């Protein structure tokens, strides 16, 4: 009897396991872009940086401001720095604890070109001096006047050094900036960075190398009108290691990019022509992730809670840059700070 009961128990367990095996594995739903904070028409958010406390700083191209947003409490948006008419901010990056650097250019909103030569500059400001509440005008300290620059665009910190990297959308260059002395020279000069054609930088002209993100020991970069992204090894003083340049993907018009966590080849790309965030594997495959109208920049969250969240700035209603002729075709999530919450495993969402 005991043997028979044991047989029945074993048989029942086997049937239960078999039944479980027949249940199809749940398919994860594709991620969606969620609006964190909508901005007024014409704001044209260009770039963003995430602070270690999770708050976000964003540059606004046409209003010439830097905005502060807490994505956990986005009700209030504060303007913390502003340029007088004639200059504007492009990119922003942290270098050192709460020390932020921004690129400025003299800029014509009509045709997106610098208004004069000798206007490309890098500035510094100290976020530790900001309380986190209220509009203010933090003092900007000039770090470097890049007189040989064409149109400075992307910016990244080479962590653990005294150097920044800055892309030049009009030349085949990524500049190296000494944050102590202000001296600048070339980190990388390559045809892979070159613009195509001549004329206005945006929307349909000569944008070459655009975004840049340092992920040791590589600097990842995008080239907008060559539809490529790649990387090269950076040495301890910010120069390219000879022979290290790789092109990792093509066929997508890219503004900015964010490499995956770890040491992978993949990256998330902002693709303004198709109004998408796109995942590129680095080995030739691309996958649309979520729709965002006119995405301009993408960065990982930095807290434990949002480490696998992508934050995106966008122009939204800037139809020329978004690559559409009908304003109604621009997605509602545009003109905003938005986010895409990804899964915690590589298999789920390729983070």
From TrEMBL:
Keyword Repeat appears in the UniProt entry: no
Keywords: Signal
Signal peptide feature range: 1-28
PANTHER family: NHL REPEAT-CONTAINING PROTEIN, NHL REPEAT-CONTAINING PROTEIN-RELATED
Record-given protein name: SMP-30/Gluconolactonase/LRE-like region domain-containing protein
Protein species of origin: Exophiala sideris
